[in-house]
Amino acid sequence: MIEGFSHVTIWFAIGVILLVLEMFTPGFFLASIALGAFLASLTARLGGEPIYQLLAFVIGGGISLISIRPLFRKYLQATGAKTNADRMIGKLSIVEFDVKSGDRFYSKIDGVPWDCICSSPLSKGDKVKVISIDSTLLNTEKV
User: Fold this and answer.
1) 8 Å CB contact between 40 and 9
2) Mean pLDDT along residues 57-86
3) What whole-number distance in Å separates Cα of residue 136 and Cα of residue 74?
4) What span, in angstroms and rounded, lies between the C-alpha atoms of 35 and 15?
5) For 10-51, how does the pLDDT look when each residue is reduced to its tens digit (9 = 90+)?
6) 55 vs 69, residue with greater confidence
7) CA 88 → CA 91, 111, 112, 133, distances in Å?
8) DSSP symbol at 67
9) At what angle do helices 50-63 and 29-45 cross, to 10 degrees?
């Protein structure tokens, strides 16, 4: 079946498949290898022998892994910028039901229910203060 396709088409298809797979993986590893496959496809299009196509794939993929991949990772890396959720730290809330130590509970802050956790047991009516945020979980302490 593969005999019916030219080397240009095969290398190009490999590059496209690697780019599609890159969408499901982090790190730009497969995208860097895809650049090598596209370079091999170009080499095949220009009439290069299979050994030169393979060299273009290895060298092109290697160079992109060493040089381009770190640039993309640095450019798209999270900056650690503060978000609106950070303003929740220090806010107070009243517990609406009894909670065991370490159990998750919902508590309203500014009218919005939040998933919270506290290291000490809480009773209905106790006040809690947000001390930190872990994703969407508010870490609280009894006031």
Assistant:
1) no
2) 77
3) 26
4) 7
5) 999 999 999 999 988 877 889 889 999 999 999 999 999 999
6) 55
7) 6, 12, 11, 8
8) I
9) 150
